[in-house]
Amino acid sequence: MALNLSADEVLSTTRAVRKRLDFDRPVPRRLIEECVDLATQAPTGRNRQRWHFLVVTDDAQRRAVADIFRRALAQAPGQPLSADDVRRMNHHARSTERVFDSLRYLADNIHRVPAFVIPAVEGRTDRASTTEQAGTWGSILPAVWSFMLAARERGLGTVWTTAQGPLERELAGVLRVPYDKVMLAAFIPLAFTIGTDFRPAKRVPREHVLHWDRW
């Protein structure tokens, strides 16, 4: 059921939902298909439309995929943080602590999520030039974000994760994806949310990120 939110409300309240996913309520296929229809209206480089969306709802397949997610998450290397990263992450008290607490909760309950959406894009960027990487990721990211916005409007919660990375080839095998030709771009849990009263997040002030004419 649509929430009848304004465009500004959808854009400012589409949160990374981990603790408020409803594990007990199935997500109708119709709603997922509607979100995919909207996602494929996103801009795409040279109109190549190389996007794909793999949706996993079958019980046995969900268990297999959830197991890969949990093992991959444990293997994910931590990206080095700069001093500015740390400053921004902790601009608001306890924000980083809450993020990691919710991530642990999701990992503990990933097998209970009713649907997984795994966006993929034709063409791999392994060892590709920056230009090629920008073109490939620039063609899948807008579509996935459109999917997530459409899900929010329908009372569904999502969270973009890249936990599949360390075990992408194994996940591709389970999903029968031709790994050498198709890249699994993300791993997105999908469920109805517990409540719909999401608010804009606390962020660093605009003046910290807005540059006019020069850096």
UniProtKB/TrEMBL annotation:
Q: Which GO terms describe its molecular function?
A: oxidoreductase activity
Q: What is the superkingdom listed in this entry's lineage?
A: Bacteria
Q: Which residues are listed as membrane-spanning?
A: none
List UniProt keywords, sorted A-Z.
Oxidoreductase
Keyword Oxidoreductase in record: yes
Q: Name one Pfam family in it.
A: Nitroreductase
The record's listing under InterPro entries reads: Nitroreductase, Nitroreductase-like
Q: Where is the Nitroreductase domain?
A: 15-185
Tell me the protein family, please: Belongs to the nitroreductase family.
This protein's name: Nitroreductase family protein
Say which species the protein is native to.
Kribbella speibonae
